[in-house]
């Protein structure tokens, strides 16, 4: 396995950097792409009486800030499930964060968890879409079936399933880590949010899988 930090990946004649922070920087578009932030999930659980550390939400926003300062994107694209559920106090953290980057174009592709009123996003100058084609990529939230992919224009970037890949040692030990999964017609991004799980995916023969460790990306296949 090849080990590196941010991994330069030329794909469909586009220059991408697969980042260990579980996002992609797309050089030609000067765009930072992330899926499944699930902001507000901490507040949602605390509201239900489940003890969760308060600083987890601020940590995800701090990571976004670090990526913005490092790569200086002109746009930020969220592939759905940005805010976890109903409105809660965690939105105020995001509103304050947004004030630091008022000139940054932010696009949200709606996911199944994005249920708060559109006006909250509009008030923060965030564009909302169900899907968005930025040639050659089609930005979605849910992965598409093979049948639908055959009828779709553009190579799909999506999230939703929080993909992971299992690594096994020489003994019986194993660990499942987040991954970027590039198939023939669509790529599934790992969940950006820290407070999310992951599901080991079934790898197809020609898939290109990139595992994400804490500070590096590893090429698995």
The overall average pLDDT, rounded, is 86
Class, according to the CATH hierarchy? Alpha Beta
Given as residue ranges, the uncertain stretches (5+ residues, pLDDT < 50) are 48-52
In DSSP terms (H or I, runs of 4 or more residues), the helix count works out at: 5
- Compute the number of structural domains: 1
Task: Tell me the major beta sheet.
Answer: 10 strands, mixed
Structural class: alpha/beta
Question: Could you walk me through the main structural features you see in this protein, from its secondary elements to its overall organization?
Answer:
Helix content is 19%, strand content 33%. The chain is α/β, with parallel strands linked by helices and 221 residues long. It has one domain (2-219): Purple Acid Phosphatase, chain A, domain 2, CATH 3.60.21. Strands 1, 9, 10, 11, 12, 13, 14, 15, 16 and 17 form a 10-stranded mixed sheet that branches. Strands 2-3-4-5-6-7-8 form a 7-stranded mixed sheet. β4 and β5 form a beta hairpin. The longest helix has 17 residues, at 55-71. It is globular. Residues 48-52 have low confidence and may be disordered.
């Amino acid at each position: 396995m090849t080990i590196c930090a941010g991994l330069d990946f030329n794909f469909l004649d586009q220059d991408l950097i697969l980042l260990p922070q579980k996002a992609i920087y797309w050089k030609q578009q000067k765009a930072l792409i992330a899926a499944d932030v699930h902001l507000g999930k901490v507040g949602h659980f605390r509201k239900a009486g489940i003890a969760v550390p308060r600083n987890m939400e601020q940590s995800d926003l701090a990571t976004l800030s670090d990526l913005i300062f490092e790569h200086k994107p002109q746009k930020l694209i969220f592939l759905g499930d940005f805010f976890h559920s109903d409105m809660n106090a965690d939105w105020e953290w995001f509103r304050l964060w947004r004030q630091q980057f008022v000139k940054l174009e932010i696009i949200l592709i709606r996911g199944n968890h994005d249920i708060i009123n559109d006006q909250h996003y509009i008030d923060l100058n965030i564009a909302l879409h169900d899907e968005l084609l930025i040639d050659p990529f089609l930005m979605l939230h849910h992965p598409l079936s093979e049948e639908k992919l055959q009828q779709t224009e553009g190579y799909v970037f999506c999230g939703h399933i929080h993909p992971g890949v299992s690594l096994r040692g020489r003994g019986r030990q194993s660990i499942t880590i987040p991954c970027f999964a590039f198939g023939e017609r669509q790529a599934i991004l790992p969940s950006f949010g820290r407070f999310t799980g992951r599901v080991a995916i079934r790898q197809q023969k020609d898939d290109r899988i990139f595992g994400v460790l804490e500070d590096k990306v590893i090429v698995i296949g």
